[in-house]
Amino acid sequence: MSEILRVENLWKSFGKLTVLKGVNLTLNRGEVLVIVGPSGGGKSTFLRCINHLEKPDRGRIIFDGQEVDESKININQIRSKIGMVFQQFNLFPHLKVVENLTLAPIKVKGLEESEAMKKARKLLEKVGLIDKIDSYPSQLSGGQQQRVAIARALMMDPDLMLFDEPTSALDPELVGEVLDTMKSLARDGMTMIVVTHEMGFAKEVADRIAFMEDGNFVEEGPPEEFFKNPKNPRTREFLSRILNV
Amino acid sequence: MPYWLEVPIKSFPYLLKGAVATLEVTSLSVLLGLLIGTFVGMGRLSRNPIFSRPATVYVEFIRGTPLLVQIYIIYFGLPSLGLNLPKFPAGIIALGINSGAYVAEIVRAGIQSISHGQYEAARSLGLTHWQAMRYIILPQAFRNILPALGNEFIALTKDSSLVSVIAITELLRAGQIVISRTFQSFSVYFAVALLYFVMTFTMSRMVRWVEKRLAIP
């Protein structure tokens, strides 16, 4: 397996609050990594540092052999290869679903409109929302919006997909459809980093689970081992808290 | 027909010509104000002080000084520095620079009203800062600030009467010329007021119409 992402000694502070404290990570192509951990532990910040939505204070991020550093490379080109799905969906409310999908491929990659349309149709078929192609985001349910957001990210043919608590803002009955879309993505071989509290999803889909607390990974491993036999006491405490509700 | 009524009716075509001049001056300064205001508004929000400082100084200074004085500076003051502007451009530039400061504050509020997640989503797809502004932030901000912009344009229409002091024959000055010949101040000024009202009321309706047309479902 070939390496797609390597993070070395990543630090990030907001004012006096140090959120990431020397995080290291390697990820191989096709791998699905699920990050769990308590709120405020740095999971989202870590994800947002990977595509430089937050600028790390220290450390290196190497994506597909290139160091992610705004002074050395074109950050927009890197970002177009890293799809991101947000907790709040962040669809563009003034654009139709299809325009949400085609805008970036046309403007960033210079795709012809007809090509972009064809691709958008294909991806909307895939996430089961082809009948919503001319709707506006506000006319969709939360789950549908998030599936559109996933399709929008896929339009750029990303080599890596980042999911930042993609189901946390959804009504419980809408969580399943989004997780199903993500599962099928994982089956297709997409490389994914998923920050989530959905332990069922983690168990079923993850190749590796990593537990992040207080700005660093405390423990990581394959799901069976992680859930059955957590080594770190803090992991054990966290798991007992969320699994025994 | 009594004389007081005859005067405004007979001089109506002349007043109308003044109203057309008012519309010309106003629409050109609205465009200038929008252009200045959009960039200054974005500049105010820039993290780079090279942009934000001058933008702040501009807004504060223009808002803190009378429009009449600004008109005097541009039309009567600049020539002593060797810059002679004809009265029409001078009036439009003065009004545009003035309106730009108010529009900048409206634009700033409009941009701030859009959630930061919109900008992040755009950037995460690989759009540049300017593309994110152009396609995602400004179109949404513009919809939100349309009512405030409408207010500003209406205010500007009325404020344009101030350029009568530099001998631009817009509506107010046209009225004053009629009065100087006929001494019918009440009925002529009233006709002038009515014409202003027709213009501003039409504008407020037009803004409402645009608002409805652009509304996001």
Quick gist of this model?
With 245 residues, chain A is of the alpha/beta class. Chain A has helices spanning 43-50, 75-79, 97-109, 113-126, 142-154, 172-187, 199-205, 223-228, 233-243, and strands at residues 3-14, 17-28, 32-36, 58-63, 66-67, 82-85, 160-164, 192-195, 208-213, 216-221.
End-to-end Cα distance of chain B: 55 Å
Oligomeric state as shown: heterodimer
Total of helices of chain A = 9
Major sheet size, sense and barrel closure of chain B: none
What's the number of extended β-strand segments of chain A?
10
Structural class category of chain B: mainly alpha
Into which percentage range does the β-strand content of chain B fall?
under 5%
What distance lies between the first and last C-alpha atoms of chain A, to the nearest angstrom?
Answer: 38 Å
Helical run tally of chain B:
9
Report the β-strand fraction of chain A as a percent range: 25-35%
Work out the radius of gyration of chain B. Answer: 21 Å
| Structural class based on helices, strands and sheet pairing of chain A | alpha/beta
Q: What general outline of chain A do the C-alpha atoms trace?
A: globular
Radius of gyration of chain A from the CA trace? 18 Å
Identify the biggest protein-protein contact and residues per side.
A-B, 28 and 20 residues
* H/E topology pattern of chain B: HHHHHHHHH
Provide the residue-averaged pLDDT of chain A.
Answer: 94
Given as residue ranges, the uncertain stretches of chain B (5+ residues, pLDDT < 50) are: none
Instruction: Identify low-pLDDT runs of chain A.
Output: none
**Secondary-structure element pattern of chain A, one letter each:** EEEHEEHEHHHEHEHEEHH
